[in-house]
Amino acid sequence: MEQRKPAITYRHATLQDADATLNNLLDLVVEGTWDWNRASGEVVRSPGWYRMLGYEVGVFKQDVFTWENLIHPDDYPRVMQNFEQFTAGKIDHYSIDYRCKKQDGHYLWITDNAQIIARDDEGVVTRILGAHLDIHERKTAQLELFEQNRLLRADNVTLEKLITQKARELENRNRELQQKIEQIEQISNTDPLTQIPNRKKFEEELRTEKSRSDRYGHELSFAMFDIDHFKNINDTFGHETGDKVLKKLAAFISQNIRDIDFFGRWGGEEFVLIFPDVPLEGATACAEKLRRLIAEYELFPGFKITCSFGVTSYRTGDSIDDIFSRIDNALYVAKDSGRDRVVELHVEAQS
Ligand SMILES: Nc1nc2c(ncn2[C@@H]2O[C@H](COP(=O)(O)OP(=O)(O)OP(=O)(O)O)[C@@H](O)[C@H]2O)c(=O)[nH]1
């Protein structure tokens, strides 16, 4: 039978060119190669070998200890035994899965394949070529499956128990997710400076209370207040002090309202209050109490502020714009008539 000649794919003018082709091809088709030479004691490793484990190329000494130090301690005896049997000619093939330490400290499952390519006159191995392949995903999936099968087969673990365990894990995961969702919701509803509800949350709350009032015919009132001459505070003491004033005031108001009242920051130096189940007169009295408390409160030693309030109540069929137009007018009148006062605007006053 005629012998098939190997096809000659490459012709190189120099050995250097041939080396370059070989190295580039190796880097393309195998993830990491190694080449052990007994005479020099060196192990030459390809760039892919370093990259697979996340190390900078060439960072290690080119000796066998580098390799031995990276093998997972649980796999080490098995790998060494296999390697010795291979070099002693007791097994024909060297192909073994084990874990190698990556730069980030985690371990990567690899398959290590090797071939003896030179022996001396006495038959002692003098050169071995090998290649590492990343099998991490496949191996970890396989091990998890083995573990589940093992648990299933174990006398004390029934399928039912395994399902219960998985269900519990899922429950914990769901609880964590729920907590994350609540945290995100909390952040999106809170004013970052004062840590009280923001305008978005206020508008949501307003819609809810409006529907509740429509449904049950409950009274519903609102107040908006604004710090007097706040611009002067910023201009005189600086923006940072202005921020501290806003924070202190927000905390102070929060402590002086009922739990069911809603208090939020509308924006800038304006704040809003919702008084569910309270008629206009009640809201005005509450605003008056707050106005007085603020005027008496020393935010910093010797430092006081005043606020102007606009108050109105809800009339069935009012739109949010109607409510705001009234409350804005009331606040405008409070400012225009000298500040540090509460002005209420009856529904009839608008109609
Ligand atoms: N420090 C600080 N200042 C703010 C913030 N938001 C708005 N301001 C300032 O609040 C000031 C509001 O000024 P004006 O609207 O003129 O009102 P005012 O000086 O309080 O005067 P009246 O309301 O008429 O009594 C502006 O100088 C804004 O820059 C904030 O978050 N921090």
Automatic annotation (TrEMBL):
Residues 94-147 form the PAC domain. It catalyses: 2 GTP = 3',3'-c-di-GMP + 2 diphosphate. GO terms for molecular function: diguanylate cyclase activity. Keywords: Coiled coil. Residues 160-190 form a coiled coil. Gene3D superfamilies: 3.30.70.270, PAS domain (3.30.450.20). SMART domains: GGDEF, PAC. Its EC number is 2.7.7.65. PROSITE patterns: GGDEF (PS50887), PAC (PS50113). InterPro entries: Diguanylate_Cyclase, GGDEF_dom, Nucleotide_cyclase, PAC, PAS, PAS-assoc_C, PAS-like_dom_sf, PAS_fold_3. It is an enzyme of class 2 (transferase). Residues 218-347 form the GGDEF domain. Its cofactor is Mg(2+). PANTHER family: DIGUANYLATE CYCLASE DGCM-RELATED, REGULATORY COMPONENTS OF SENSORY TRANSDUCTION SYSTEM. This is diguanylate cyclase. It comes from Marinobacterium mangrovicola.
